[in-house]
Design goal:
This protein has 106 residues and is an alpha+beta fold. The protein has one domain (10-61, 77-102). 35% of the residues lie in helices and 18% in strands. It has five helices and four strands. A two-stranded parallel sheet has the order 1-2. The longest helix is centred in the first third of the chain and has 11 residues, at 10-20. The two termini are 25 Å apart.
Length: 106
């Protein structure tokens, strides 16, 4: 999952999407305008707007099969973050399960 900043320019977010190899963008209402602009610049990008939170949690869910074992998924990236860009180009960093565990409160 790559989290884009709503204050980033379209070109900054486009650069992040392309560097991460993203072909799907799931966004909330506050990113709707930027998502449309990104779609026009990234022809392979599939965009999907999320419903408001209260509607999302009220819907029935369908189980999603996860076929990897814990050991095979241990080092897979689960989250991609980016810098603020104050020094120039936005820099990405991957976070895996091991990194997220270190943020856990004791």
């Amino acid at each position: 999952m790559l989290l884009l900043g709503p204050r980033n320019t379209v070109d900054q977010n486009l650069n992040l999407l392309q560097r991460a190899g993203c072909v799907r963008l799931v966004y909330g209402q506050e990113m709707a305008r930027q998502a449309q602009h990104l779609r026009t610049k990234h022809v392979d990008l599939s965009i999907h707007e999320l419903p408001p939170h209260h509607e999302l949690v009220a819907q029935a869910t369908i189980p999603y099969p996860f076929i990897k074992t814990f050991s095979s998924a241990w080092n897979d990236p689960v989250l991609m973050l980016h810098s603020s860009g104050t020094t120039g180009t936005l820099e990405m960093t991957d976070k895996d399960d091991q990194t997220l565990i270190t943020y856990r409160k004791p």
